[in-house]
Amino acid sequence: MGFGLFAVELLAVFILVCLLLHRHGNVRTLHPAVTVSVLVAWWFSFVIVFVVPMDVSDTLYDKCTKDRCINITESNCTVLCDPPLSYLPQQYLEIFWNVVFWSSQLLTWVILPLLSSYVAAGEFTISGKVKAALIENAVIYGTLGILFGVLLIYVVASKHLDKEAIKVLCITASNTWGLLVLIFLMGYGLVQVPRACWERSSYSELLTQKRFDVSKIKIELEEAQEKLSQILEEVRHINRLVSRSNELRKFVDIIIQKCPSLHNEDLANINYDDYANGRDDITISRSSLVSVHGKVISAHTNMHRCQVLWDMTVSDGLDLEDWVQMKNKEYRAESTLSSIKYHCRIYVIPALLKSIAVLFALMSIVIVWSEMVFSVKHPTLTICAILVDFVKKPAFVVVVCITFISYMCLCAYYTIFKLRLFNLYYMAPAQQTDDYSLLFSATVLSRLTTPLSLNFLALVHQDTRYNPDIQTAFTTIMGSFEVIPFIAQGFNVYYPILIALIGIATLLKLGTRCMAFLGFQTFVQDDEISMDYVEEGKQLLNRERRSRERGGKNENNTTSKPSTSTSKRYENKKLLPSRSQSDHTGRFESDRARLLDSEDYDTNSLLDTAPSSNYRHHHGTSSSHKNKKSSIFDDV
Would you call 360 helix, strand, or coil by DSSP? Predict the structure, then answer.
C-alpha cells in the first residue's frame, strides 16, 4: 500500500511539473538537455511537499512501535500504533533522499550553470559553446573553491577531520547558502501571496494595475522594436563588408538565418549614408560575429515575447473593463447560464478570493511566529510543532505537514516565478520564457529543496537538534551541523528573524517605493508617475478596443456572415493573422532580399525561410488575442 501510494504521489507531482513547464516554456523549441534538466530539478523541488510529511509520519510510527514493543509482541505493537497508509521502511526513504539530494547538488552546482552558459553563448558550433561555458564558469567555481578552502581550514583547525566530517561540511556549506536565499524568497512570499489574493478580489483595483501593465509593456515593446532595428542595421552593415570569398562568410549566413522576418519600416529607417563615412574599414572578426549572433537571438526572442505579452495584457485589460462596467450597471441575464456566470464572477469569486487571502494571512502569521521561536526547546512555542503533537494520528500528521510545507513552498516558489531581472531572467507565461530563465529558475529551486525541508523539520521539531529521540530518514542523510559550530549555534538559530524583517519591509512596500524613487517602472498606488502610466494605459486600451471592433466589422464583411463572437473565437483559436500581418508576410521575401542585397552574395539560398506567424509590426492589428481567464495561481 505504501509503495503504491508513494508511486502515485511521484506521478502526480511529475504531471504538475509538466503542466507548469508547458505554461512557461515551448518544449518544441527548447533544447532537449534544457527540457530534461528543468523537469528533473522542478520535480525534485515539488516532490518534497509529499515526501517530507511521509518521512515525519513514518518516523513517528517507528518511534511509537519502538517505545511500546519493549515488553510486548510485535503484533500487539501494530495494534497500539496506527500505521500510516503511506508507510515506507526508513532504508527506502534514505535511498530516495540520497538520490534527491546528490542529484540536486549536481544539477545546481554543475549541470545547470554549464547549460545556462551554453545556451547564452553566441558561438556558432557546439564545441565553441562548450568552451565558452567552461571559461565562464571557471571564474565562479574558482571563487567558490576559495571560500570552501577557507571553511575547510577552519574545520581542520577546530576539529578532527574525517570522511564523514568532510561530507557534512559540503552539505552544510550548500544548505547554508540555500537558507540565505530562502530567507529573502519566503519572507517576500509570506506577505505578497495573501496580498495578491486580496487584490485579485477587487476588479477595480485589478483594472488599475492592469492599465499600468499595459502602458509598461507598450514601452517595453517599443524599446524591443528599436533595439531590434539597431541590430538589424548592424547585420546589414556586416553583410556589406564580408564578401563571398571571406572565410567568415559562413558565420554571417548563420546570423542572417537567425534574423526575424523584417518589416518595411525597419529597412526604410536604416541610414545607409553612415556606411560611406569611413565605416567600411572596420575589421570584422569571429569574436565580433559571435557577439552579434548572441544579440540577434536575444533581441528576436525579446521582441516576440513582448508582442505576445502585449496581446495577452490588452485582452485581460479589455475583459476587466467589461466586467467592471457590467458590475456598475444593472445586468439583465439573457439565460440562466449567463446569470450564473455573472453572479459567480461578480460575487462568488471575489468572496472566495478574500476568504483564501484571510486564510493565507493567518498561515503566514503562524509560520513567521514559528520561525521566530522554533529554536526554543522547552517549552514548545512553535505552533506547527504543537499541532503535530496534538493530532498524533499519522493520517492527521500527514495532513498538517502537507498543509504547512505546501504553503511554505508556495510562498518561496511564488517569488521565483514573479521575480524579474530586467530581460536576463523573466518567467513569462504563454510559453514565452527563454532557455536561460528556465535554467536559472531550476538552479534556484534545486538550491532550495534541501534547506526548505530542513527548515520545515525544525518548525515541527522533528530534528535531532530539538528532539533527540527523533531521527527522520532526511536528517540521517544530512548529518549534524555541529561540524561547523558558528553555523550550528549562531546562523541556524538567528537567521529566521530576518524573515520577519523582510516581511515587514514587503508589507510596507519599501522595495517597490525605492525602485520607483530610483526611476524603475513599478506600480505605487499614491505615486503621481504611476497614475500617469495608468491613464496612458486606459487610453491605449480604448484605442485597442476601437481597433479590434473595426477589425471585427471588416471580418464580418469579408466572410459568409458568421457572428462577431464566433469570428473572434475562431481567430483566437486558430491564431489567424490580421490584415496588416498578412500583408507583412507577403512582403517578407523582398525584405530579406533587400537585407542580403550585395554584389557578391547570392540571396536565393536563404529565401526559403518562412517568418513566424506570430510576429507583426506593433502598428498593426494583434495577431492573436487569447481570452485568458483570471486565476488565483496565474502568477505561480
Answer: helix
Q: What share of the chain is helix, strand, coil (3-state, %, to 5)?
A: 75, 0, 25
Decide: 524 and 516 in contact? Cβ < 8 Å. Answer: yes
Cross-strand partners of 426:
420
pTM over 0.85: no
Could you give the count of Cα atoms lying within 13 Å of 174 in the half-sphere of its Cβ? 24
Separation between Cα atoms, residue 496 and residue 604, nearest integer Å: 64
Instruction: Give the model's pLDDT for residue 233.
Output: 86
Q: What is the Cα–Cα distance from 591 to 578, expressed in whole angstroms?
A: 19
Mean pLDDT calculated for residue range 128-154: 81
CA angle 506, 510, 516 (to 5 degrees): 125
Cell digits for 534?
Answer: 495608468
Strand partners, 420: 426
| Four-residue CA torsion sign, 145, 147, 153, 159 | negative
The pLDDT value recorded for residue 360 is 96
Nearest in space to 450 (alpha carbons), one of 56, 92, 177, 190: 177
CA dihedral for 74, 79, 80, 85, sign (positive or negative): positive
Reduce the secondary structure of 98-142 to three states and give it as a string. Answer: HHHHHHHHHHHHHHHHHHHHHHHCCCCCHHHHHHHHHHHHHHHHH
Give per-residue burial for 245-276: e unless 16+ CB within 10 Å, then b: eeebeebbbebbeebbbbbeebbeebeeeebe
Burial class from Cβ neighbours inside 10 Å (0-12, 13-18, 19+) for residue 354 reads: middle
**CA of residue 319 relative to chain centroid, distance:** 25
Dihedral angle, C-alpha 269, 273, 277, 281, nearest 10 °: 70
Per-residue model confidence (pLDDT) at position 72: 55
Considering only residues 618 and 469, tell me which one the structure prediction assigns the higher pLDDT: 469
